[in-house]
Design goal:
Elements: E1 7-10, H1 14-24, E2 28-31, H2 37-42, E3 50-53, E4 63-66, E5 69-73, H3 78-83, H4 85-90, H5 92-99, H6 104-109, H7 112-118, H8 124-132, E6 135-140, E7 143-148, H9 149-152, E8 153-155, E9 158-159, E10 166-173, E11 180-185, E12 195-200, E13 203-207, E14 214-215, H10 217-224, H11 229-233, H12 250-266
Parallel strand pairs: 1-3, 2-3
Antiparallel strand pairs: 4-5, 5-10, 6-7, 6-10, 8-9, 11-12, 12-13, 13-14
């Protein structure tokens, strides 16, 4: 299908993009890689009157250190994050998650900020950010705020991001040498996860087990109390509310959450 008519402006800076968002409100949408927004526009599930292109803003790209945190610019491509030696050393779970997104074409153009802002509950990077206890930096006309991943994701494709705010960076605690596990079950290679699990340092995040990436809190509490990986994994689906579709019903997703959590905990990488 063909998208509805829209205007296009290439932002000259992050500040310029924020001014355009504030001026146009809900009529404006940000464009970076476009792999989430453009398919929705073709189906006319999204009909913005203005696209604000931030894909060329170098100030929003790159991977760096800030004290005990790794900082990733919002327009950093998945492929660049996956290949970053700094990310692979300091937050290998996040780098690995980026390497699992879609196919090479998507990883070459898609951005971490776009994936997080889109907030698909089956996506790799939102789940990884929750597991890592990371946060996002949001900038608007009123200033900058840092929001934890646990609070950023609100529901199906809903986030804490205000209409006049721009997600400028992602922050994750540095975790060099800390064991981590990552599992996801897909019908075909490159598909969205039917269920996914990311685990590190006692935190367990699940993809597609609710309207947003969720913590397996019962399993986490069991681990903290000294339970074995198998015992903790048996509780992974407790308190979750998975949906159902032609890929899997609710009970099958709960089963997958338990199986994949056990695998993630028993086959951690370091």
């Amino acid at each position: 299908m063909i998208p509805a008519q829209f205007d296009y402006i290439a932002a000259e800076s992050a500040g310029h993009a924020i001014e355009l968002l504030a001026e146009r409100g809900d009529d404006a949408k940000l464009l970076a890689g476009g792999h989430s927004l453009l398919p929705m526009m073709k189906l006319r599930l999204a009909t913005p009157a203005l696209l604000v292109d931030i894909g060329g803003l170098d100030e929003l790209a790159g991977v760096s250190l800030d004290g005990d945190h790794l900082v990733i610019g919002a327009t950093t491509r998945h492929g660049d994050l996956a290949a970053s030696e700094l990310a692979r050393a300091e937050a290998p779970l996040l780098a690995y998650a980026a390497s699992q997104v879609g196919d090479p074409q998507i990883r070459h153009r898609g951005t971490i900020g776009g994936s997080l802002s889109h907030a698909d509950p089956s996506a790799d990077l939102p789940m990884a950010l929750v597991a890592l206890g990371g946060s996002v930096v949001l900038q608007g006309l009123s200033g900058t705020r840092i929001v934890s991943a646990d609070d950023f994701f609100q529901g199906y494709f809903e986030t804490e991001l205000a209409p006049d705010e721009l997600l400028t960076a992602v922050r994750v605690p540095r975790r060099p040498g800390v064991p981590w596990g990552y599992q996801k079950f897909v019908r075909r290679a490159n598909d969205w996860a039917i269920v996914g699990v990311a685990a590190i340092d006692g935190r367990i995040a699940l993809a597609n087990m609710g309207p947003k990436p969720v913590r397996a809190l019962a399993a986490e509490e069991a681990l903290a109390a000294g339970a074995s990986p198998a015992e903790a994994a048996s509780l992974a689906a407790d308190g979750t509310s998975p949906g159902e579709d032609f890929h899997a019903d609710r009970e099958y997703r709960r089963h997958l959450a338990r199986v994949l959590t056990r695998r993630a905990l028993e086959h951690e990488r370091g």
